[in-house]
Amino acid sequence: MANVGSGPGKPPQAAEDAVVERAAELATEVSEADQASERRRLVASIAGAARSGARATGRGVRTARRGVGTARRGVRTARRRMGSGGGRLATQVVAMAQRLRVRDQAALRAQFPGRSAEDIAEALIESAARASAAVGGAVGAWAALPVLPAYPVEVATETLALIGIEVKLVAELHEAYGMPAPGNAMDRMTSYVAAWAHRRGVSMIPGGLVLAAGSPLARRLRWRLATRMGRSAFSLGPLLTGAVAGAMLNRQETRRLGHSVRTDLRRTRAETLGDGR
Questions:
Q1: Interval 42-100: pLDDT, tens
Q2: Are 155 and 229 in contact (CB under 8 A)?
Q3: Spatial distance between the Cα atoms of 25 and 96, rounded to a whole number of angstroms
């Protein structure tokens, strides 16, 4: 996977598109990696990009010894950005979601032959949790670098990859239970982004799926992104042991999300079967 970035002369929009594409690719590949060594290889590109970005831009002049104070400033900066320009990151999330490779029910059954929907769902949750931990651990390791990357760009990049892992999980849980979101591919992925923002199954989302500025879903998505970015930034604090904290926090968050969505899908399936009787 090639590193991408703004680079000399690269238009800002092209650079943003490249980051979105790279985050979607990473989220897809690391989610489906079977071995820990393969996950580590995939996420190593994140730390490499952080180092090269810090050297190229000269922005990362803070040292790891500044620790928690730096991390807390990163949290505040991330949340300010979400307040003033969060629509841009929300747009990136939706664009990234469209690029994710989602396995449908047939593909999941072929990959997990003879296993029930419950077994497949559990495997998907644990795989996504491991992938999220790997990404969080790699970026948490930035705290050990002599020069830290600048906030909040690198934190936003990590967040985008993590969200990709989690949106893919939400989508594949719906497929595992045979309840994919309706509509075309774009409609379905928008629904899964909304489900991620609400931590619910698609059929349980309140307030509709309109992502227009100021809509309930747009506000919810921006709030969820601010929360996720804050956690990503704070995991960089050396007193939280950097990589260990990043891995632990992200594993717990992704597993919690998967269990919440699975609970809704179980309930909806039970209600549907009950109506069928």
A1: 777 665 554 554 444 444 334 333 433 444 444 444 445 444 445 677 888 889 999 99
A2: yes
A3: 9
- Cβ-based neighbour number of residue 8 at 10 Å: 5
The SS3 assignment for 181 reads coil
CB 148 within 8 A of CB 240: no
Q: 6 in helix, strand or coil?
A: coil
Q: CA-CA distance, 132 to 70, in Å (whole number)?
A: 23
Q: Which residues contact 224 (CB under 8 A, 6 or more apart)?
A: 196, 197
Residue type, 115: R
CA 52 to chain centroid, in Å, comes to 23
What is the tens place of the pLDDT at every residue in 162-220?
A: 899 999 999 999 999 999 999 999 999 999 999 999 999 998 887 666 665 667 777 88
CA distance 171 to 101: 10
What tokens appear for 93 in the block? 């999330």
194 in Cβ contact with 54 (< 8 Å): no
Alpha-carbon separation of residue 137 from 6, 40, 134, 214 (angstroms): 24, 9, 5, 34
Tokens describing residue 123: 């495997």
